[in-house]
Amino acid sequence: MPLGNGFTLPEAAGKKYLLVGNDKALELVEKLPKNVVMIDCPIEEYEIGRPFSIGEKAEVFEKITSAVKENSLTKITEIDIPDTSKITMVYDNRLTLEFGSMEDLQKKMKKAVQIIKSVDADYNNKATGTIRLQYEDG
Question: Nearest CA to 133 among 70, 88, 83?
Fold first, then answer.
């Protein structure tokens, strides 16, 4: 996983990101540095140098980042959590992974790793597109 996270701040004029690390707000920037994952999950409150809050999505965020680390998806460049039923990630700025809900997240992550390895082997790490990992109940 990259060095840190940059949360979007949609209420800020223009597109701004809050860099965080060790559960603290570090810096407000207009452009994300390399090795930072962009996370589209609104921050409820923050103060530079102090802990920040993403409210009700905190537990979801923790589960997602744990699953990313456990499955060694080291090239995740973006995580989008508009709500818990529409989770999307971007791998290596070229493959969009649509997970849908949190249901069976570990299983979906493992499948994503298998597909990425296969696609990267076939297309020399240059493939682009969307991988849909969500499924309908029933």
Answer: 88
Q: What is the pLDDT of residue 28?
A: 77
Q: Could you tell me the two tokens for 109?
A: 């992550």
CA distance readout (Å), 123 to 74, 91, 129: 19, 15, 12
Token pair recorded at residue 101: 């809900």
Reading the block at residue 31, the tokens are: 């452009």
Residues in CB range of 3: below 8 A, 6 or more apart: 21, 35, 36
Question: What average pLDDT score do residues 47-55 get?
Answer: 78
Going through the chain in order, the beta strands assigned E by DSSP cover 4-8, 17-21, 24-29, 36-40, 76-80, 87-91, 95-100, 129-132
**Dihedral (CA of 118, 120, 72, 135) sign:** negative
| Both tokens assigned to 128 | 């682009």
SS3 state at 92 = coil
State the pTM of this model.
0.77
Residues with Cβ within 8 Å of 43's Cβ and at least 6 positions away in sequence, in order, are 7, 9, 18, 52, 53, 54
Strands 4-8 vs 24-29: parallel, antiparallel or unpaired: unpaired
Q: Which pLDDT score, from 0 to 100, does residue 9 have?
A: 59
